[in-house]
Amino acid sequence: MTFNSLSFMFLFLPVVATGYFLLGREAGGKWPKIWLLAASLVFFSAGKAEDLPVLLGSLTVNCIVGSVLLKSNKGLILSRRNLLIAGISANVLFLCYYKYTLFFVQILNRLAGTDIHAPHVSFPLGISFFTIYQIMFLVDCYEDMVEGHNWLDHFVFAGLFSYVTMGPIVRWKQIVPQLNHPDASRPNLDNVAKGLFVFVIGLFKKAVLADSFFRWADAGFSYNHTLSLAGGWIAAFAFAFELYFDFSGYTDMAIGASLMLNLNLPQNFNAPFRAQSIIDFWRRWHISLTNFITTYLYTPMIRSMSEVTLGKAMMATFLAMLIAGFWHGANWTFLIFGALHGAALALNQFWRKVKWPMPGPLGWLVTFIFVVISLVFFRSSTATQGVHIVRSMFTLQGGFFNYEPWSGIDHVDQGVGIGWMLFGVAVLFRAPSSMDLQRTFKPSWAMVALTVALAALAVAYSNGVVSRSFVYRDF
């Protein structure tokens, strides 16, 4: 089950919201949260039932470790610091086992000239995200930033259906106080209206815009010959826009679904393709991941240094982004993506330090082109493919333009798809961001009409043959 499925939109979410508010009115106390937990486990199981024990095992272990960390040192075998290190290490090893076993075995085989066969390990749904939530939770426990911890709140916080599989990345203090608010399980019509509007915006982004770009990106990246110069840029631009509308669309749907239940999730996107520097880009793109990188990777590295210099800060930035790149997947392409952005951010730090001028339009152009090129590696199946596509973007090895990569797209779909893609580009660079729309939303008949129209279009596309799952569901 995914957010853009008819079963989620017309069955799961209405049933969950109705049950939540009915229990809040009739039973109160812990029962609304138990209902949310049960609904979350059903949602997760509908996505990949065999991974439910993995999720429950992770939640249980981290709940126990967090409970112990919140106690004093008295009576503990390990100090709180060593327990924190052990807890974080267990989470990292847990993630590495399921996500990187094959990758590490392949490296070992290549270095040692052996032929060790890696055990078959399936990649659990949402493991990259719910593991990060809990690493952050353990650090916050150590820093005494977690209040009122208990088993029920922990399981709801780390396993809530609206973000357990793909984010946004959340912290205990952002979610649990809202769950425990006296009005948490009482219906709020303003929140329902705003949440529905934001959800529909996200659904439209995903079903209509992202999936329109997908056909062109997928055709380009699936082409078995050298792309033309124009073809390389078409494929690169199409994927960059597909990824934005897909992931920001999912985020809007997560925020909207949560808001209907009176939960405010952190924003994850703020018009990132309008950024005028790579630092500005990461303040706008996957904002919750940027906050995690800054708070839990970069800052500890800086604190560990006896003397902080610009060179050391740049190196910490590079290493933090390299880790973040590898977090996305067990492939050299993600390491290259992380290294490119780490190097660019470090260079941006240096540029700011020396205060060299950079006109805004030029800063935007350099940032935009760099991001598009770096995302070629994010999308490529191998580093070699990424290099070949980037090379095609700057040479005439495949000629200036070759229509063949896109000849398999139906001509009617091409016409409609190009129309939506042009509309999507206009949205990217001219329309208010989802963050702005949510902040300024006011119920009105015009908003009702807009919501219904967008919903009708999005549902029609969601039920079509080109509808596909979310890109980040594979991470």
Structural category is: mainly alpha
How many helices? The count is 18
Quaternary structure classification: single chain
* Arithmetic mean of pLDDT: 90
Largest beta-sheet details: none
How large a portion of the residues is in β-strands, by DSSP E? under 5%
How many β-strands, per DSSP?
0
Q: What's the N-to-C terminus distance?
A: 16 Å
Query: Helicity, in percent?
Result: 55-70%
One letter per element, helices H and strands E, the order comes to HHHHHHHHHHHHHHHHHH
Q: Mind telling me the C-alpha Rg?
A: 23 Å
Low-pLDDT ranges: none
Overall 3D geometry?
globular
What labels describe this entry?
475 residues, mainly alpha, 69% helix, 0% strand, globular
Topology diagram in text:
Layout: H1 6-26, H2 31-48, H3 52-69, H4 80-112, H5 127-142, H6 151-159, H7 172-179, H8 189-221, H9 229-260, H10 278-284, H11 287-303, H12 310-327, H13 332-354, H14 360-379, H15 383-392, H16 411-430, H17 434-440, H18 445-462
Structure commentary:
With about 475 residues, the protein is mainly alpha-helical. Helix content is about 70%, strand content about 0%. It is built from 18 helices and no strands. The protein has helices at about 5-25, 30-50, 50-70, 80-110, 125-140, 150-160, 170-180, 190-220, 230-260, 280-285, 285-305, 310-325, 330-355, 360-380, 385-390, 410-430, 435-440, 445-460. Helix 3 (about 50-70) runs parallel beside helix 5, helix 3 (about 50-70) packs across helix 6 and helix 14 (about 360-380) crosses helix 15 (about 385-390). The protein starts with 5 loop residues before the first helix and ends in a 13-residue tail after the last helix.
